[in-house]
Amino acid sequence: MKNADVIVVGGGVIGCAVAYYIAKKGIPVMLVDEPKRGRATSASAGGLWPLGESIGLGCGVIFHKAMIEKGLIPPDSHVPPQLPKTFLDFAIQSNAMFPSLAIELRETSGIDFEYEETSLLFLMYDEGDVAFAKPLYANCPCGRSRIDWLTPNELRKVEPAITHNVLGALRFNGDNQVNPYALSDSFREAARKLGAQIITHTEVKGIKVSSGRITGVETTTEFIGCKYVVNAAGAWAAQIAKTAGIELPVYPVRGQIVGTEALPDIISACISTNDCYLAQKKHGEIIIGSTTEEVGFNVGVTPSAIKELTAGAIRAVPFLEWVKVKRVWSGLRPGTADEMPILGSVSGLEGYINACGHFRTGILNSPLTGLLISEIINGEKLSIPIEPFLLSDERLNGSITSNHKVSVFSQEQQTIIISIKGMTCEGCVTNVKKTLNSLQGVTKFEVSLGDHQAKISYNAKEILPDTVIAAIDELGYKAHSPLAAKCIGL
Amino acid sequence: MKDTNHTIKTISSNDYRIQEGIARGTEIEIIVDGKSIKAYEGESVAASILATGKRSLRTTSKSYEPRGLYCAIGICFDCVMTIDNIPNIRACQTFVRNGMIIETQQGEGKWRVEP
Amino acid sequence: MKKIKPVVVIGAGPAGMGAAIELVKADVPCMMIDEAPRPGGQVYRQPPTKFQTQEKYKLNSEQKRGKDLYTQWLEVKDKVNLLSSTSVVGIWNEKEVIYSSEGISGIIEAEQIIIATGAYERPVPFPGWTLPGVMTVGGVKSFIKTMFVKPGKQAVIAGTGPLLISTANRLHEIGVNVMAILEAGNPPWTSGAFSKEWQEVDFAQDIANDLEELKGNNIPLLFNHTIFEAHGKSEVTSVTYGEVDAKDWKPLNDTKRTINADLVALGFGFVSNTELSMLAGCRHDFHPGIGWYIVRNEMMETTVPGIFSVGDGALIGGAIIAEQEGRIAGIKAAQNAGAITAGDAEKYFEKHLSRLHSFKSFRISINEATAMRKGLLYLPKVETLVCRCEEVVFSDVNTAIKEGAGDLQSVKLLTRLGMGPCQGRNCASSMGMYLCETLKKTPEQIGRINSRPPVKPVTLGALAKMINAEEELSNPFDAITAGGRI
Q: Chain A contact for B108, CB < 8 A?
């Protein structure tokens, strides 16, 4: 009889990452995979957008706009739902693993997963977009060095193919991209080289349980014994969990994708707008996504969605009008109501571990998920607290949904300290105070001659720290904010 | 097999068009790689170019190999050229227009991307 | 009375024309979509309307048959809503037909679809097959008969099947020096001994005439020979050829010789265009003699109710068979739409069904005789391109196999084979066979390269301007014209 210490169910990017990190620790692991049509890994743009995703860019902003158009949310709510800080921390930490992972997996597997430092650009078409972007810019939780506000002119210089009909763009440095297929292939091949057994074209029919613990899995062909089962079955995770008597709030969420013919290097950044996102991959295709639809396991494409995505892409990058579509397809994201992955053990069933519910961020969060699961199985100290991601009763009954989430950037009232060089007398202080008083959005301030600084409270929806700094500079002083470059209010 | 050392005869008129039994449409001009050539309404881009004896229509993007007309029915995508500034247009499925600008495409070709 | 929704016929070759004629006869609205500017398909392809041709050459029987069908077509054509120069890019969500033309696209929500998309030459990779001057026989024939331009001066024709002979004669006729026909097989029809049933197909007479003409043209026909390599830098200048094993067509390298040629015409049988029926979800099975084929009932209906597949696009058989199949599908579709009774349909079917029946043995033997033999897989060298689009070489496929790729889909993911614009049409059949042989697996296990929309090129701009043919404009033909002005 076949057996392994750990059986990973599902060979998408999460399953492959889990198998890799477990194999790396020398634990016997077997990955069992039935390549189903519509798995999310093969319908991904490969974006690594920890900041973008956390604040609702990518699919979030597109979905939000669609909801407004359908009248499901009020038209004046510019800000799409944002994810909690715990998610952002997880995503940032996982994202930081990629540069060294690229080298590590290339050496072990021989496959280059095409990690590219591209940055993510949010294009602002209208005042609504600007209103959405302003507080993000003012309160970037990861430091000012990671976020830039580009004027239309600056945008034109870095991305000449982008439309001139924009009010500007927000650039997220550190939000990058990979080739999602190659990432999952390289995890799988590296796992294989490290001793993992990879069984493909084999479906897991059920998890076998005896007196509260896992004994193995039943596949289409045989029973395989094991101590741990990792459920990495993506959109199909709930079906797998059910065979072990576990209810999982994971459901398929379809996303449709358009891929263009191969083009020379034209777009260097990943682009997010309120009607689509775009990323040019290494082999030249531009990937355009995506819809957010609950249609069960239907992996078709719809003319209306393709029409909207292509129109959205042309709006952002006009020359695409003449570019040919190479293929359109769709994938099923493993959705959860709170948009957070479900990780770790569950109470009452020993040996069962979740690695699912990654929704839109499976590619990005695959390395940390893999590492975390391997640490759980090896009984090590965890690299990041797992509590927010465990399957809790609240998550199970769906009482947390994306509408109730605590936003990363919920605080509108912000305080900033600006150092001012060149103030020599009380007259200078009065000058500065007069100017600050005239700025709309600045609610309170103290200017100190002795400390050469001003402490300013402002409404992040109305004014940006940079505007304040610029106004002081205009008086002939030299204003600077070291704190503006760090996280304020978090 | 006929005599294996048979050399290929040159066609003196440098025009591969069949003349007998055919009256073509209006004569027009197209620009191929900057040079003006004769074409007839109703001809495909591939036909007008092959009629001059030129058969290499593009080079590939990886190994820079020449390619020409292969299937001639629009399914192989080997005869793609840059036509009126749009790369990857099938020369066998596109019909000539007076003043059409055609370029032998190098690799993925050059796009005009500025809006 | 219930308004009958138009039946959508895809392809205006003999099969599509046959279907349209029957639909019009039964007063069923028919919408026909065809890529070419004029109907006729590849076999009855016509020169551009701007060209005037004299009937200089005596019509051969193939052209005569084409003329008969065309005469009938002319009688009904005003009642057919023909969208020419238009490609079908996909069939989505059961029966939504998406088409594209001149920078716009449209959608037709059909109840019944007749797919008549024809076939293309089976690709056989060998060193130099990507050089300019190397073409398919179908391409050569269609090019000269529509464009009246010589694709070269001195030709070698290689492959298998009767099309090689007629192509040689056509080339000779326009002044191309045909050095030889290299026929890989030793097919029965060349001996003059024809099966009695074949008389019906006029096939025997066609071949006899073509062979006679070939003799008069002094063009050598070499059996159990094939092309080994095409040489040249910017285009083909010479060809290496030789004998092949009579049974599996493995090249016998010690027989090779080189000859000057600037045109190579290749014809190793045909592969059906099944992309649309695959997208529509119709079942395809594998048969050792004929390869992948679409599962259909006697009335040409696929496993998806309301979707028919006819002609060479379903199973190779040639123009006459295609026309019969198209007519049968047209009659059945008319019956399904309630335009004719079952009894009438039965009457109309009879003639075409019995003709089809008489072609049955011919069809099997033509498919078997021209089936790809595995010895040809010895032609490519390690550095020979096997995927023309993505420039994948033979050794890349072997490396993928070594790395554990067990089917076409995994070879595709590892090498990008089949990921280019032709969607695997020029690599899937040969590499599928190679994988079967190397891995000792069945074609079902090796699988196929999935068809993905769009199956024909369409721009983002065209999709962004997609119109619903029925909702937005009363006549989809207007839609096309209107689209040009948007």
A: yes
Least confident of A11-20, B35-44, C52-61: C52-61
Q: Tokens for A434? A: 């007069």
- Which residues in chain B have their CB less than 8 angstroms from residue A260's CB? none
Structural domain contains residue B71: yes
The alpha carbon of residue A181 is apart from the nearest alpha carbon of chain B, in Å, by: 21
Q: Is residue A291 part of a domain?
A: no
Closest approach of B66 to chain A, Cα-based (Å): 18
Residue C447's nearest CA partner among C472, C417, C468, C478 is C417
Rounded to the nearest 10 degrees, the angle between the axes of helix C61-76 and helix C319-336 is 20
What ipTM does the predicted assembly reach? Answer: 0.93
Asked if B68 reaches chain C (Cβ–Cβ under 8 Å), the answer is: yes
Neighbours of chain C (3+ CB pairs under 8 A): A, B
pLDDT per position as a tens digit, C359-416? 877 777 777 877 889 999 999 999 999 999 999 999 999 999 987 788 998 899 889 9
B89 and B105 Cβ atoms separated by less than 8 Å = no
Q: Please tell me the total count of domains within chain B.
A: 1
* CATH code at position A456: 3.30.70.100
| Residues 255-284, chain A, touching B (beta carbon < 8 A) | 261-264, 266, 284
Please give, rounded to a whole number of angstroms, the shortest distance from the CA of A21 to a CA of chain B.
35
DSSP, res A287: E
- How far lies A353's CA from each of A213, A345, A362, A396, in Å? 11, 4, 17, 16
CB contact under 8 Å between B86 and A319, yes or no, is no
**Do C112 and C143 share a domain, yes or no?**
no
C-beta separation of A357 from A379 below 8 A: no
Which residues are CB-neighbours of A399 under 8 A, at least 6 positions away?
A: none
Calculate the alpha carbon distances from B19 to B22, B41, C263, C409 in Å: 6, 16, 20, 49
Please check whether residue B14 is in contact with residue B53, taking contact to mean a CB–CB distance below 8 angstroms. yes
Q: Contact A264/B112, CB-based, under 8 Å?
A: no
